[in-house]
């Protein structure tokens, strides 16, 4: 069993920092929520690296919201529900599609410069969207532009205090209520940050896999912390693999946006044959899970480690104008997007599951909220629709702040929490080795295609690492590995339980979707282990 806390401590021995709202994480969810909350509250924003290090920064395609005359929230809702493969919450999707456009206007007010054509917001179309509704910035650098604008705002607001290079180890709870967190400072000292509300915005879990589009910081810390604190964690078996990450010697797994296919790029196998017509009527714009598995099938048939993305038939000026970041990054490795076929393969990209919340971002632990990729609001279901993640973060960030503003004050009494598991030994193996082994296990046995045998093998391999929780952990990489191990076990156990294929979860031994038995969620809690939850009618 995974213990409630990663470290032994007595709160009476720790210095206390008091604030109103603690925001953990500095992607779009954390920055936006901190800005909104700062209108009425003092905010402590904690990030384990810096304000510009998050998954948001790498989001290229854009942000999905209805702004065009020929589009409507009803169309956006329908597209989202279709992609989510029967597991979306229709109420959560309604909130997203109806409040998203206002959120985009708020981002513009806060200084985000979206691309404009002929005096109108420029819109593009991505896979599984029925209309052009994706706003973008600097062509393909939308996430970076949003983080730039929001970071500038945060730095100007006097009642947001930012702690860079601080690591949140654990959430402190008493009688099912969250009072804040134990934080390790850059010099190794620990403090108890205490607040009226704690908002978890710690991002995704891409680093569970050897190949990912996510940055180094995406180690599932938020999900693991909330799980240890007793929160309900939902839908962890649904990990989205982006079909087209750059796959080239010496290059990082750089994301090549869905929007490139939206603008006409085609996929070819190593023999140069266009293959998507064999797999789906929407061709290259089929849902991501279908495209990713088609690519893996072609790689296996042809014995290669990649396929090609070909946009050479489009005018070079259009490609350079629309995708300047992708163009320049490929050029650094001697690949010209306008004249070369670009080698790509799937990589772990987005976690659909996470901390289960209601329509106001509240988790099952009082005063603990979750926003962004770390949350499971019910918007994404079994497969996220492209570019819905950024809009989800701003829509639910606003709702969280509305709810925080109505919270009763915390009592002034000091809380008596301590934990002593009698840990004495230090970890025996270097964390970098443990981490790489875990990533390889997850790719091999719990990746794009799964079956009972591979998942049982993954569970067995991961369980061998559980003695780590009985050792004395002191460093960031040790905490990160403990969090990755926790989240990996949740992914594997969820995938083992779900004996069907749906959305981003594909079982070779149960290759069909089974709505009769499996149109429901799998929810994990630390004390009750695993339970099932019926889906609302979609």
From TrEMBL:
One of its GO terms (molecular function) is L-aspartate oxidase activity. Its main location: cytoplasm. It comes from Paenibacillus solani. The keyword Oxidoreductase applies. It is an enzyme of class 1 (oxidoreductase). Catalyzes the oxidation of L-aspartate to iminoaspartate. It is found in: Cytoplasm. Belongs to the FAD-dependent oxidoreductase 2 family. NadB subfamily. Pathway: Cofactor biosynthesis; NAD(+) biosynthesis; iminoaspartate from L-aspartate (oxidase route): step 1/1. Pfam families: FAD_binding_2, Succ_DH_flav_C. Its EC number is 1.4.3.16. It catalyses: L-aspartate + O2 = iminosuccinate + H2O2. GO terms for cellular component: cytoplasm. The active site is at residue 288. GO terms for biological process: 'de novo' NAD+ biosynthetic process from L-aspartate. Residues 435-528 form the Fumarate reductase/succinate dehydrogenase flavoprotein-like C-terminal domain. Its cofactor is FAD. The keyword Oxidoreductase applies. This is L-aspartate oxidase. Coiled coil: none annotated. Keywords: FAD, Flavoprotein, Oxidoreductase, Pyridine nucleotide biosynthesis. Residues 20-390 form the FAD-dependent oxidoreductase 2 FAD-binding domain.
